[in-house]
Amino acid sequence: MLRRLGNQTMRVTGDGSLSPGRTLRPKSGTSPGLFAALVLLGTFFYIGYFCSSSGIFKDDKQVSKIEGEFGCTFDVQRVLPVLKRTYGDNMRKVLHVGPDTCSVVSQLMKEPEIEAWGVEPYDIEEANTRCKNLVCRGLVRVADIKFPLPYRAKSFSLVIVSDAADYLSPKYLNNTIQDLARTTVQNLVIFTGNPIHSKARVAQQPKFGHPVKGQMRSKTWWERFFVQTSLEENDAATMKFKQAAFEISYKPRCQVFHLNSYH
């Protein structure tokens, strides 16, 4: 009878004859060398992604969605010390509405006495780890600002708006400003593009409402709008802001309006 050779293989010898070779054993998985290489490669990718996303190799002051140096959100970040001197204890609970709000909220949260929230009116397509964390914690929301924001009346002591009002049509603008005034106890600050600086614009086209045709709205236009919507300019805060800005030799590129809410 012929006996089976099991898992033995045949190899060719020098004289051309066949002889049993060593037994082949089925492999139980990926080879150790390949597995180690994959782990090492994955680690490098993770470290690279983490560092680039968390801002370790990026400038913390970069503004992802603002084109050029004249974005009003960038102005807000630079002028936060002036706002603190202007509003003092009224900066306990702050809401910022505008593009790249994650950067503003992160900067505000560095102050131990300030609680900060943000509303991003445009999609966050390239959010870094810090921004994603703020969204997951509910501190930053992506919201269509044409509709009422999910906050109760008088939720904040100060609401700051930048690069969000310029590109709304009067119809949407009226509803949005009234809703923002509803969410603050008293103080509403609006940073708008200055017609003098034609470069002031948002790089991403607004998804809510229609872009304003022509140049940015003028100071006179805004003042008429505030009268029509029964918003009163806060003269005391305006004077404090100008004085504090003058003392540090800072002149905002954008128009800044200090308003009292309806309450």
Instruction: Report the span from N to C terminus.
Output: 104 Å
**Poorly predicted runs of 5 or more residues:** 1-7, 21-28, 46-70, 199-214
Strand order in the largest sheet: 5-4-3-6-7-9-8
Mean pLDDT: 76
Note the beta-strand portion: 15-25%
Taking all Cα atoms into account, the compactness measure Rg is 30 Å
**Total number of β-strand segments?**
9
Helix content: 25-40%
Question: From the helix content, strand content and strand pairing, which structural class follows?
Answer: alpha/beta
Q: Report the principal-axis shape.
A: globular
Tally of contiguous helical segments: 7
Order of helices and strands: EEHHEHEHEEHEHEHE
Task: Name the features.
263 residues, alpha/beta, 7-stranded mixed sheet, two-stranded antiparallel ribbon, globular, disordered N terminus
Structure, explained:
This protein has 263 residues and is α/β, with parallel strands linked by helices. It is 35% helix and 17% strand. Strands 5-4-3-6-7-9-8 form a seven-stranded mixed beta sheet, with helices on both faces. Strands 1-2 form a two-stranded antiparallel sheet. Helix 4 links the parallel strand 4 and strand 5. The longest helix is centred in the N-terminal third of the chain and has 23 residues. It is globular and about 75 Å long.
